[in-house]
Amino acid sequence: MSPELQRIVPSDSSQIEETIAANETAHQFYREVEVRSEFNRYCEWYYDTAKSNREELEKMRGEMNIFNWFRRSKG
After folding, report:
1. What is the pLDDT of residue 64?
2. Long-range contacts for 57-60 (Cβ within 8 Å, ≥24 apart)?
3. What mean pLDDT is predicted for residues 24-50?
4. Residue-wise over 31-70: b if at least 16 C-beta within 10 A, else e?
5. Is 60 left (phi over 0), alpha (psi -120 to 50) or beta?
6. Spatial separation of the C-alpha atoms in residues 51 and 27, rounded to whole Å
7. How far apart are CA 23 and CA 69, in angstroms?
8. Three-state SS letters, the chain
9. Cα–Cα distance between 42 and 55 in angstroms, integer?
10. Please, which pLDDT band fits residue 49 given cuts at 50, 70 and 90?
11. Which of 10, 28, 44, 69 is disulfide-compatible with 15, CB 3.0–4.6 A?
């Protein structure tokens, strides 16, 4: 093995396994943080959209219903 590579890669196999395991754990941790953050953004969007829809529904309930005029004229 070249001297440059020996400085990067430990010669002890147990140390290599520990390093790989630590890197894998760090990768899983950051992926979990990313997934949870994405889920929280989705939940915020969902609650904001639901609030907006409820407000719009209340506004529509207060408006005059034009379709009632057509239904009354048929009878």
Report:
1. 78
2. none
3. 98
4. eeeeeeeeeeeeeeeeeeeeeeeeeeeeeeeeeeeeeeee
5. alpha
6. 36
7. 70
8. CCHHHHHHCCCCHHHHHHHHHHHHHHHHHHHHHHHHHHHHHHHHHHHHHHHHHHHHHHHHHHCCCCHHHHHHHHC
9. 20
10. very high
11. 10
Six-digit token string for 57: 């529904």
Tokens of 8: 């990067």
**Which amino acid is residue 10, in one-letter code?**
P
Instruction: Show the tokens assigned to 41.
Output: 């953004």
Q: Tokens 């760090």: give the residue.
A: 26
d(CA 13, CA 2): 17
